[in-house]
Design a protein that fits this description.
By secondary structure, the protein is an alpha+beta fold. It has four helices and twelve strands, in the order ααββββααββββββββ. It has helices at residues 2-10, 17-43, 90-160, 166-233; strands spanning 44-59, 65-70, 77-78, 83-87, 236-238, 243-245, 255-256, 263-278, 290-295, 302-310, 336-343, 359-365.
Length: 371
């Protein structure tokens, strides 16, 4: 019995090779994984800080008013030019009618001013013709005064010698005085006619000014009509592009303000990806390099893409309160630069099902062709 125990104690102990094998497998597996990741990192630039983006057009009314009709629902597909909403247009129709009535009044005033101008010009022509007639009569009267004055002078010399009778002398004197009075009357008539012509000419000038004012008023009223008609057209709100309607929180009878964002139209025909890459990855990324995009919504499916452009600044610069390392304690944080990646496959139907805001992984192939 003692011998058996001795042999058992003196026998060599078995080694645990299973632990060593597992340890070697873990070391080799970890090394292979590390080398693979290192080699992959030399030829790829990956990030999971990326999302799908698209153009989003807000629906904004240009005028204030009450909503009369809403013609779209949540998530509805619309085409460019489709009517989305209609505002109450009764007030604007009244304003348009009022502007049109003011335009008609201005046009009537212009017609009246032109008629007055024509009448004034006719009166001026008549007055000038009358003055010309009076001038001719004055010339005749001047001749008559000269002739009667000559006769009077002769009779005045002859009366001294009693060569003529007193009656003949008095007749010559009377003829001379009558011719002079007639000349004075004609000169007075010419003076009055000239004053009347001046007054009529001033009135004609005033009516011409009224025509200019009426023309300017008509142009202003035409602008008012165009403005009222344009505001009336703004009561019909249409889609600016094809896309999908977001949630529509607007109700019939609601009062909306001009410039108020009501809801949005997502233009999903043109989507892209914004990947926020670390600044340490930026040195080897170039525009035109190929990229593979994998969306969380479609795991295992890779979308073909390419690097399109780089943001002009890091994402932190566009924040509401950008960090300022010049104040306080400096803490160096790796910044991220947004990079735009566009899809290149036109036949991938799954790409059309992507929606803005979805999370994706972006893998840029650094060895692909650069532009």
């Amino acid at each position: 019995m003692a011998a058996k125990q001795k042999n058992a104690e003196g026998a060599p102990r078995k080694r645990n090779y299973g632990f060593i094998i597992v340890l070697l497998v873990l070391v080799l597996g970890g090394g292979w994984f590390g080398i693979t990741k290192y080699q992959h990192a030399q030829h790829h630039a990956e990030t999971d800080d990326a999302q799908v983006e698209a153009n989003i057009s807000p629906v904004i009314p240009r005028i204030a008013g009450y909503v009369r009709e809403v013609r779209v629902k949540d998530n509805q597909h619309v085409k460019k030019g489709d009517t989305l909403m209609i505002l109450d247009d009764r007030d604007l129709k009244l304003r348009l009618e009022q502007a049109q009535a003011a335009l008609a009044t201005a046009q009537s005033n212009l017609g009246a001013a032109r008629a007055n101008t024509s009448a004034s010009q006719a009166n001026v022509s008549t007055s000038r013709a009358s003055i010309a007639t009076i001038d001719a009569q004055i010339q005749t009267a001047d001749v008559s005064v000269w002739r009667t004055t000559q006769d009077y002078n002769r009779y005045a010399n002859l009366i001294k010698d009693h060569s003529v009778t007193q009656q003949q002398y008095e007749q010559a004197l009377a003829a001379k005085q009558t011719a002079e009075r007639q000349l004075d009357v004609l000169k007075e008539q010419k003076k009055q006619a000239s004053e009347q012509t001046s007054a009529v000419a001033s009135q004609s000038s005033a009516t011409s000014t009224q025509i200019g004012i009426a023309d300017a008023t008509i142009k202003q009223r035409e602008v008012d009509v165009d403005d009222a008609r344009l505001n009336l057209s703004y009561t019909i709100i249409t889609a600016s592009e094809d896309g999908l309607i977001s949630k529509v929180p607007v109700q019939v009878g609601q009062y909306v303000q001009a410039g108020q964002s009501l809801f949005s139209v997502v233009l999903n025909d043109d989507i892209w990806v914004i990947g926020n890459y670390k600044e340490t990855q930026f040195n080897r990324i170039r525009i035109g390099q190929k990229a593979l995009v994998e969306a969380d919504a479609f795991p295992g499916h890779e979308f073909e893409a390419r690097v399109a452009s780089f943001a002009p600044a890091t994402g932190a610069r566009f924040a509401l309160l950008p960090p300022d390392n010049a104040s306080g304690n400096f803490v160096k944080v790796v910044q991220r630069l947004p990079i735009k990646v566009e899809f290149t496959s036109k036949t991938d139907t799954l790409a059309r099902q992507l929606r803005p805001g979805m999370n994706v992984n972006v893998d840029i192939l650094l060895d692909s062709g650069n532009q």
